[in-house]
Amino acid sequence: MSTNRFHKTISGTDTLTIHEATLANTINSSSLVLDEEQDSFYFRALEKQGILLNIAQIQAVRHLKGPLLTLAGAGSGKTSVLVARTGYLLTVHHVHPRNILLVTFTKKAAQEMKERIARLPGVTRQAASNIQTSTFHSFFLKLIRSRGFDQEILTSERFKHIILKKILKELGLSDTYQPETLLTLFSSYKMNLVSFNEIPSSTSVEKEIKQIYTQYEQWKKEKHQMDFDDILLEAYHLLLNSPDLVVALQNRFTYIMIDEFQDTNFLQYELFKMIARSHQNLMVVGDDDQTIYSFNGARNEFILQFDKEFPTAKTVTLDINYRSTSTIVGLGNAIIAMNQQRKPKTLQSTRTSNQPPMFATPASVDEEATWVIQDIQEKVASGDHTYKDFAVLHRTATNSRAMFEELTKADIPFINYSVTDQTFYEQWPVREVVCHLKLALYPNEYDAIADMLATLYINKDVGMNHIMISENVTSQPSPLLHLTSMPSIKEYQKNKVVERVQLLKQIRTIEPYAAIKMIRDRFYDKYLEANERQTVTNHKEALKETLDELETSAKRFSSLATFIAFIEEIIEKNRDMMKLKKDSETNAISLMTIHRSKGLEFPVVYLIGASEGILPHVSAIDADKLKDLHPGVELKKKKNLAVEEERRLCYVAITRAKEELFISSPTHYRGKHVDVSRFLREASPIQKQEKNNSKEIEPIPRKFKETIVAWKCSSSSCIAWMRILTHENPTKDQKKCPLCRASMETGKVDIYE
Predict the structure, then answer these.
(1) DSSP state of 698
(2) Any idea what DSSP says for residue 687?
(3) pLDDT (average), residues 604-617
(4) CB 292 within 8 A of CB 318
(5) Is 337 exposed, middle or buried (0-12, 13-18, 19+ CB in 10 A)?
(6) E strand or H helix at 469, and its extent?
């Protein structure tokens, strides 16, 4: 049973500590808004539709003039507030629908809000349709279209990758940069309003990147195309140079509401500050504790410093969580409270449960995957759950490798919400190593040869062309040897080719794990270290983490042939599985990163990899050593910033769970022993809290006091106990548990000072 794997404490043996959020007062608008109040008709009508607002929600809905910061804790009903306030403006203050602008981040969210507004009492469908409800990009695309911008929008990420690969080839830089990495960097330039002259160009790599950026922008200009970032950038420059247009927008949109404000980047914020500057009727809704997209330009300080940007701003805190049980909310509260850079708030809950968060400490990520899958299968077999009730959340794509494989092997339906739809083995650093394993067995595997040429610093097209022509003339046992006769090849490259062929012969008969270690030790780690181009927004440590995970996977196989066959099977099954994504009603487990899960909720959540080096990620722990993380920030502050964002990630993962939460902390990762995540250790009140969160947390020694006879709950899933009072007769009296209402039995409890 699951109790053998998951326990109420991290080790399964420690004294139990359960964090339980305060139960919220259930008082709502039905008694908070009196009938004699002028706007009571609106709240009475909402109540008839089942919309009962708490006191903080009412304050946000009633807000009329001036800036408003609505701190919306996880599961606190922020969408209901945005929708209800829109209806309030329309029906109570008779604001014209055309004067309201409601902005969110996804088309789906915008459409959902519009539909909910249309169902509000006193709001006609025509009025709802006249409200400008849109995403950032759709709003500003409409704006620039009205001013003659008619470029085609470049929406396909795959096509953008093709264009960049073409540019790299033209510049003689094929296989030197990853297109997705370059696009992320180019986006950051635009979202942070970095001008062309401000782009770094000191080193040879920086000059290359600037040249690629120039070529990419020139290609779009020639083809009369723009991407999503260009929409916002063009709108910014348009407004900056068109004061009359700014005034027109200010007069038109006199009430502006921005959802998910914590995800806003610098450029988006600047755009809306322009439009709201005159009337300042700007309502922003967000949660600084859920700012997890700094890599996309989101900044925590926009919420933290909102009252400095808008000194007259009012703040309303939505602190009642309607989603999760009190023990899940309580754990989230305990974890996020450790962050220093945040608005202080403690969420309350509306739901009790006798099922607290459960913890497991498997020996490895592979054992972790097995445990989680067995637990899910037991729950489904009991008839209480279906597969779509479950979400398995992980920190990075690499961390999902074992879970992905075990789900695939068990033939359990699941949807992998990966950004690229690629398996772990198709990531470029893994692919380059795996192609060496293939060539050790099959020297004539031309696709593998093409994939590994970059590691010899040989252009793929030039190298493959020479090999194919030479092989047609004279066949070689290893076609790679043809490279030694290339006219342009240098002497040191010839030696590298011969060495590589010899290495492939050496690894042919050894186990996959040893083969990968040899490849890394002989050349590949040094190749990655020397290749400065691969460090652009990609930490070298992250690359090593990926390769360490490849070694972990390889340990399970005794021959190269079985390992390669397994990899090919996984890739093929992934292609079949991707078809499930098209059907939102598929009864399947959701496997996704924590970033991808934000805004979603699930009955049961498994958070895997809650160990040091995974969550918090090693890139955050070593942030003060990484140049490309938080550029421009003092080294001593980098680590705190990075670790606090990791803690917010942990918080987001926990608060996705509605009913049950399971957290797993592998004790070994990347071949080393790792501790349980500091986020879990720090949250426990039986731990000594250091001021400096980066220090190790040591348990406070507990002194035994006495053993007492007590009432103990008979339920295996409940931990309640009560001291037996002097007037009670344990042999005759019957007692119900105050938490779960199960019967209580007599037993012994150790008391510590």
Answers:
(1) P
(2) B
(3) 95
(4) no
(5) middle
(6) helix 460-473
